[in-house]
Automatic annotation (TrEMBL):
The keyword Manganese does not apply. Keywords: Metal-binding. Belongs to the DinB family. It holds the Pfam family DinB. SUPFAM superfamilies: DinB/YfiT-like putative metalloenzymes (SSF109854). The keyword Metal-binding applies. This is Damage-inducible protein DinB.
Length: 166
């Protein structure tokens, strides 16, 4: 049995989650970006943006080992098509970074900061898996928002009530 690198394993996991994530993002209309199920909830547009940007986090972790909330540049949310294109760009970047990542880069510390102050540090490897899980978590939230707005929920790990096929 061949030994699979962590980069390859993370890439396979990201590739497995990408099609369903894309299907969800494609169905979110910009007319619903400000909708939220509760006053304490985030708006649907911001939630979709988080889902679309998480793959960029992976690239940033590998290439620069830090994200600072104060300087991180979010995509300017405009149209649904632009959001999906942003997601695709971020997936391409994450795929390339994961294909090229070395064990040394995975072992290096990633630092999450706010205005230069370190909030936490841990190995890049730990944060990549956590980021993929974070994307899946927020995609799950997004499917609830979709259901509450009568947007057909695509099949994700199997058929949905709206999409009986794969």
């Amino acid at each position: 049995m061949k030994n699979v690198s962590f980069g390859a394993a993370f890439l396979a996991e990201l590739d497995a989650e990408t099609p369903a994530t894309r299907k969800c993002l494609e169905r979110i209309s910009e007319s619903l970006y400000s909708w939220k199920p509760h006053e304490k909830s985030m708006g649907m547009g911001y939630l979709a943006l988080i889902v679309a940007e998480i793959p960029k986090w992976i690239t940033t972790m590998i290439e620069s080992s830090e994200i600072d909330f104060a300087t991180y540049q979010h995509f300017n949310l405009s149209t649904s098509a632009a959001l999906v294109a942003h997601f695709e760009e971020n997936i391409r970047g994450a795929r390339k970074a994961l294909q090229q990542v070395t064990d040394e880069q995975l072992a290096a510390l990633f630092h999450l900061k706010n205005q230069g102050q370190v909030l936490f540090s841990s190995p890049v490897k730990d944060n990549i898996g956590s980021s993929i899980n974070h994307m899946v978590h927020h995609r799950g939230q997004l499917t609830v928002y979709m259901r509450l707005n009568d947007i057909p929920v695509p099949s994700i790990y199997g058929p949905s009530a709206d999409d009986k096929g794969f």
